[in-house]
From TrEMBL:
Residues making up the signal peptide according to the UniProt record: 1-27
Keyword line: Hydrolase, Signal
Protein name (record): TAP-like protein
Species in which this protein is naturally found: Kribbella amoyensis
Molecular function terms from GO: hydrolase activity
Length: 618
């Protein structure tokens, strides 16, 4: 079973030192919970104009018996603590009635912060139709994102044009430090420029969620949340413990600690996933993948060589294809097991580019097609050439092409904004960077206001984790002008929630999830999945054991009597699970081979998960 105190010594040495440094540097008294607001009657009485959702046809194409999903926008206060002090904002919602006897209202969140969730509840139903029969399904885009009133992070062309530039954020030089500080300050100024920026937070979203519960006259709320959605679920349970129904929180953040504690895990957990699963998988398939190596060490050396060549081309002024963008692409893509093929293709595409960059300074159709040809047909079957072409923008995506999402990092946002600024007719011309999810992190918990602290952390992490140790850099939260609306999460009075966690998750470290579980033992049941690294487990899980436990809880209310460890199924195109030394001891529930998941979920659900993964670095 679980051995929380027996994490390998090597892992402890890697992990604990940066975590303690960050924690002590930002130590502060425990926050007090903000008052829970009442809901003014005018919001409950507002007229609602419903129409069939644009994605309803896609839902019914995948599951013809699905109920019709209707969409609308509802008004909520910008600040629930002072409903009359600011203009109202809108939250986009989707809703379908249970086709059978309803067990209540079920809503979801895909992660982020900032992930748009309007389609997620219905998308989960296409993969697990019992959700349609047993629950009234509610989807929503959190305030500030998707089709809800958008957060606007507004700066000027002059400010963008004045930013310094570094060829590679991994190179921890004085120039890189200057760039990170300048960018963080610009992001902070931009996202706090409008009054709405102060109120795009988890606590305000929790108030929105309970308003939606009341709007639909539901006694309780049921919830499936992934990644940041676990943070949202934990905060809801702490705010409204008596209204918690069946909560499955999957791929957990360390939601009893600070946002900084969480991002400080990312370099460690991301590198563990890459080095213990992706690179060994590529090496095991050397006969099906041309030119990346037959051992993990060879694959890593080839990756580093490709990356170095990209940086050289950027420094020579001949390319806009960056090495740090490749890192970010791989980090986001390996969220999903089936996406190992896509991550491999990303490496191959960049390899082809460095061999023949041409004069355009960007990836072209020939690079993508040559990379595709380096995969054996058995691996090509897990993706499509059309999707990969669309992913790199070398052809237009066909209407039938799904999951062609391009990674959308803050660096990409900034590059697009710079291009806009370069065409500006005046320095004071406004440029909207869009809705940056980090705003939520800044509003949620306290951050160290000293940018030098983060520079030291990034420098140290870059040395310790050579893949993406530099990823955090200086956050915009170091300059955030507003006090956080924090909570002291103890979950008093909440019924038990089901926590599901893969051992090798790249985005939400197992160790952080386990720490939160230990903080909330009376209110959570913990299910670990041994040798599993996918981000997002319940519904279409690689583990039949975890899927069964989740189903039993969601559809009958029954939780396991104690914490459990599940086994998993093989990675794509493999027949057995390759064990990884880590914080779970391997004493897992055996997975019946007949129930092994083929690695495929409904395309609508896959697209929703890919979109959130692609925007994970915003």
């Amino acid at each position: 079973m679980l051995r929380p105190q027996k994490i390998a010594v090597a892992l402890a040495a890697l992990l604990v030192a940066p975590l303690l440094t960050a924690t002590t540097a930002t130590a502060a008294p425990k926050p007090s919970d903000p008052p829970t607001p009442s809901i003014p009657q005018r919001y409950l009485d507002q007229p609602i104009t419903w129409s069939v959702c644009s994605f309803d046809a896609a839902v019914k194409a995948l599951y013809p018996q699905a109920p019709t999903t209707n969409c609308a926008k509802v008004k909520v206060p910008m600040d629930w603590a002072h409903p009359d002090a600011h203009p109202d904002v809108e939250v986009a919602i989707s809703y379908s009635k249970a086709t059978g006897t309803s067990k209540g209202l079920m809503t979801t969140n895909p992660g982020g912060p900032g992930g748009a969730g309007l389609t997620l509840s219905a998308a989960l139903g296409t993969d697990k139709p019992q959700l349609f029969s047993d629950f009234d399904l509610l989807g929503f885009d959190p305030r500030g994102f998707g089709q809800s009133t958008p957060l606007q992070c507004v700066t000027t062309a002059e400010a963008l044009n004045a930013l310094p530039v570094t060829p590679d954020y991994k190179e921890r030089t004085k120039l890189t430090h200057q760039v990170e500080v300048a960018e963080a300050k610009l992001y902070s100024d931009a996202c706090s420029a409008k009054e709405f920026g102060q109120f795009v937070s988890s606590q305000q979203t929790v108030y929105d969620m309970d308003f939606l519960r009341a709007l639909f006259k539901a006694r309780q709320l049921n919830f499936i949340g992934y990644s940041y959605g676990t943070w949202l679920g934990g905060w809801y349970a702490d705010t409204y413990p008596s209204r918690v129904g069946r909560f499955v929180i999957d791929s957990n953040m360390d939601w009893t600690h600070t946002q900084w504690d969480n991002v400080n895990f990312d370099p460690f957990s991301g590198q563990r996933r890459r080095d213990t699963q992706l690179f060994p998988w590529i090496a095991r398939h050397a006969d099906q993948i041309q030119g990346l190596g037959g051992t993990p060490a060879q694959v890593k050396a080839r990756y580093n060589g490709i990356r170095a060549s990209l940086v050289t081309l950027v420094k020579e002024g001949e390319s806009s294809v960056r090495g740090d963008n490749l890192d970010g692409t791989i980090y986001s893509t390996i969220y999903g097991n089936v996406r190992f093929i896509r991550a491999t293709l990303d490496i191959l595409v960049h390899d082809e580019y460095t061999k023949d960059p041409g004069t355009a300074g960007e990836i072209e159709l020939r690079h993508v097609d040559r990379a595709w040809a380096r995969l054996a047909p058995e691996l090509q079957a897990f993706d499509t050439l059309a999707a990969i072409r669309a992913r790199y923008g070398v052809t237009a995506a066909a209407a039938s092409t799904v999951a062609a999402t391009q990674v959308d990092s803050l660096k990409d946002v900034l590059a697009d904004a710079r291009a806009t600024a370069a065409k500006a007719t005046s320095g004071d011309q406004p440029v909207n960077l869009g809705a940056i999810g980090t705003t939520v992190r800044c509003n949620d918990t306290a951050w160290n206001p000293d940018p030098k602290f983060y520079l030291r952390e990034a420098d140290k992490m870059a040395r310790k984790y050579d893949f993406f140790g530099y990823m955090n850099g200086v956050p915009m939260c170091a300059f955030w002008p507003y006090e956080p609306q924090d909570r002291n999460l103890d979950l008093k009075g909440s019924p038990r929630m089901l926590m599901v966690q893969g051992e090798l998750d790249p985005a939400t470290a197992y160790e952080g999830a386990l720490r939160t579980h230990n903080d909330t033992l009376r209110a959570t049941r913990f299910v670990a999945i041994d040798d599993e690294g996918q981000h997002g487990q319940y519904v279409g899980s690689a583990s039949a054991c975890a899927e069964e436990i989740g189903d039993r809880f969601v559809f009958t209310g029954e939780l396991p009597g104690k914490d459990a460890v599940c086994g998993t199924s093989p990675l794509p195109a493999e027949l057995s699970v390759y064990p990884v030394d880590g914080p779970v001891d391997g004493n897992a529930v055996k997975l019946p081979k007949t129930k092994a998941n083929p690695g495929k979920v409904s395309p609508l659900l896959q697209q929703a998960l890919d979109t959130v993964a692609a925007g994970s670095l915003r």
